[in-house]
């Protein structure tokens, strides 16, 4: 598994420098803080922030796992797959895999979301309805390399339910293939 310390991060307050200090004033509940109101919502309500993909791949992939040798989980996963297709037809819902595929060590199906509104509707729904199944939520970023894909599946990923270790060797093989292609095209 990759380490969070392997990556660089933008400073969280970039663009918010030299503002007045925030107040410690509390709301009526006595616990939450009063925030400065400026009359506009964050742009993140309307569009995923950079570097998330806003194209055909969608901003997030959600992989919903089940143990293919467990008939109870298989039946639940099939029913959940059908329910998602019926309730969320605007989302991209992939094939119901009956075996491990790619870095995913057990059977799964995948759902893509394209907007913050879809994410905001689907993820709370999935939290309640995923039953005994685990789900991996990972971003799709604008840079399409094996290294970035691995980071999206690991360091940037979020889990619902039990975390299932991924087969990261797949990304190593993808990086080797990318390097081979670069060398091949570099010699032409």
UniProtKB/TrEMBL annotation:
The biased composition feature labelled Basic and acidic residues covers 23-32
For this protein, the record's InterPro entries field holds: DOPA-like_sf, DOPA_dioxygen
Pfam families xrefs? DOPA_dioxygen (PF08883)
Region feature Disordered, mapped onto this chain: 1-46
User: What protein am I looking at?
Assistant: DOPA 4,5-dioxygenase
């Amino acid at each position: 598994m990759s380490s969070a310390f392997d990556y660089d991060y933008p400073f969280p307050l970039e663009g918010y420098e030299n503002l007045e200090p925030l107040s410690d004033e509390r709301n009526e509940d006595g616990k939450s803080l009063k925030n400065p109101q400026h009359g506009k919502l964050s742009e993140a309500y309307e569009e995923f922030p950079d570097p998330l993909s806003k194209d055909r791949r969608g901003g997030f992939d959600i992989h919903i796992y089940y143990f293919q040798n467990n008939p109870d989980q298989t039946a639940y996963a099939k029913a959940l797959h059908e329910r998602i297709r019926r309730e969320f037809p605007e989302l991209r819902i992939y094939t119901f895999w009956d075996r491990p595929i790619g870095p995913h060590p057990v059977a799964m199906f995948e759902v893509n979301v394209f907007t913050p509104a879809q994410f905001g509707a689907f993820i709370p729904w999935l939290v309640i309805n995923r039953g005994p199944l685990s789900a991996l939520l990972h971003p799709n970023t604008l840079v399409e390399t094996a290294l970035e894909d691995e980071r999206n599946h690991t360091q940037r990923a979020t889990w619902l339910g039990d975390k299932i270790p991924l087969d990261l060797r797949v990304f190593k093989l993808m990086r080797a293939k990318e390097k081979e292609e670069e060398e091949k095209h570099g010699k032409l």
